[in-house]
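User: Just a sanity check before I run the rest of the batch. Below are the structure tokens for the first item. I only need the designed sequence back.
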């Protein structure tokens, strides 16, 4: 026993003196040796320490790491293969370096759901196309209707969404239509209007949209008399007049009545105009966060890789990416972003409307979720030093972490000026009663999350 201990110590000394390995690589080797693992699988200087870590984690689980203990396989690819082996999957279906790690992930997710991944485990398919086919298979759809690499992923998505609603997608599942035209036909079919009036491929998507909305208005007018439609707007003017009267009589009463009237207006507006068009507003988040991001990272994959690099927690990175992806899809639908050859670009419409965005402070769900979240993590009293420490733990990119700190510091000050947070004697920040009420109000307005969103919060919960 003493001899073995001596030899281990001697080996450890030789390892420390070996300049072929950096400190992190040495740590991985020592961790493996301490657990009596066969470290010869990864005791090669050509492996980075993170590759070594993936192999070590596999050995700890008793996996056959020979599937991925190869220098030409990236850390992310190793992780996907390891996760597949842990689930007992046939990793040979995606253990191919021609697939990037995100393609591997789509195939692995399909295998976990016991799907026939042969439909999309193809090198000529992008990650986004793979995802659309996987989602279709999960819903039990006939994916052959859009399993065509000539369709871009957004065209695939429009066909998939139509199939999910039991629509006859033969009206638009043709390469003659771009994804925006497909969308207009799908939306028309969902609302039961006559799509034959605008279905020809020669019509631009803008023309299709105009025709669709005109038909929806006509349909609305048929089911709601013109007088009631006019009265709706007349009532709004009466309510506005009453508000001004109340203001002159009792200022405190007005604030309550304004909130009530606003809610009534909102409910009436939704009730009467839902079938015409969903309301969409370009936000500061889009202008200050989304647009600068896609200028720099103009494909979904580049955007995802950038986010993955910034976060120390893969879970937080995934959460952030999914929120941004959802918002980008909405901006594409509304004509603020266009996609050509799978590359994002900002439209002239976005440039013009960005100039009009109000620069005044506005309390949003970013404040109620993110800013207040940091305060709550600090036990209800947050100093700037504690904020900086929290951010450093959250982000791996030091430059990005510093930018995030400066932004949050400014956000805290704005919340303080508006009375949503208070400053304590030690200059720490706490949530005020007004802030709690405002956060509650914001929370009530947020839509309920569906299964796909899981734990993801609103799109405002992203750092600008």
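Assistant: Here's the designed sequence for the first item:
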């Amino acid at each position: 026993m003493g001899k073995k201990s001596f030899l281990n110590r001697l080996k450890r000394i030789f390892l420390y003196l070996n300049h072929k390995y950096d400190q992190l690589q040495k740590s991985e080797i020592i961790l493996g040796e301490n657990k009596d693992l066969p470290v010869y699988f990864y005791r090669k200087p050509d492996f980075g320490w993170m590759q070594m870590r993936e192999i070590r984690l596999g050995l700890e689980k008793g996996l056959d790491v020979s599937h991925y203990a190869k220098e030409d396989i990236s850390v992310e690819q190793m992780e996907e293969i390891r996760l597949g082996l842990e689930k007992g999957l046939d990793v040979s279906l995606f253990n191919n370096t021609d697939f990037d790690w995100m393609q591997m992930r789509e195939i692995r997710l399909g295998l976990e759901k016991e799907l026939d991944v042969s439909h999309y485990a193809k090198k000529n398919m992008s990650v986004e196309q793979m995802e659309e086919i996987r989602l279709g298979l999960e819903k039990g759809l006939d994916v052959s209707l859009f399993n065509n690499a000539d369709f871009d992923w957004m065209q695939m998505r429009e066909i998939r969404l139509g199939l999910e609603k039991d629509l006859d997608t033969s009206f638009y599942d043709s390469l003659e239509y771009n994804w925006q035209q497909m969308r207009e036909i799908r939306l028309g079919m969902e609302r039961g209007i006559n799509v034959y009036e605008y279905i020809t491929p020669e019509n631009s998507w803008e023309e299709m949209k105009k025709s669709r909305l005109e038909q929806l208005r006509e349909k609305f007018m048929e089911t709601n008399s013109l007088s009631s439609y006019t009265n709706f707007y007349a009532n709004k003017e009466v309510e506005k007049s009453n508000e001004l009267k109340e203001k002159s009589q009792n200022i405190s009463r007005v604030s309550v009545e304004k909130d009530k009237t606003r809610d009534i207006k909102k409910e009436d507006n939704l009730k009467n105009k839902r079938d015409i068009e969903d309301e969409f507003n370009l936000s500061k988040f889009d202008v200050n966060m989304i647009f600068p991001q896609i200028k720099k990272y103009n494909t979904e994959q580049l955007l995802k890789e950038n986010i993955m690099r910034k976060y120390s927690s893969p879970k937080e990175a995934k959460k952030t990416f999914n929120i941004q992806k959802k918002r980008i899809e909405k901006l594409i639908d509304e004509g603020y972003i266009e996609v050509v050859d799978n590359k994002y670009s900002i439209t002239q419409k976005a440039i013009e409307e960005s100039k009009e965005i109000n620069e005044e402070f506005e309390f949003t769900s970013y404040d109620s979720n993110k800013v207040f979240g940091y305060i709550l993590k600090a036990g209800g009293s947050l100093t700037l030093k504690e904020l900086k420490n929290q951010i450093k733990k959250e982000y791996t990119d030091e430059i990005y972490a510093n930018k995030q700190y400066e932004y949050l510091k400014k956000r805290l000050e704005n919340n303080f000026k508006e009375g949503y947070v208070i400053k304590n004697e030690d200059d720490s920040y706490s949530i005020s009663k007004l802030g709690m009420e405002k956060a509650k109000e914001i929370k009530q307005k947020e839509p309920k999350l569906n299964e796909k969103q899981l734990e993801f919060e609103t799109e405002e919960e992203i750092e600008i």
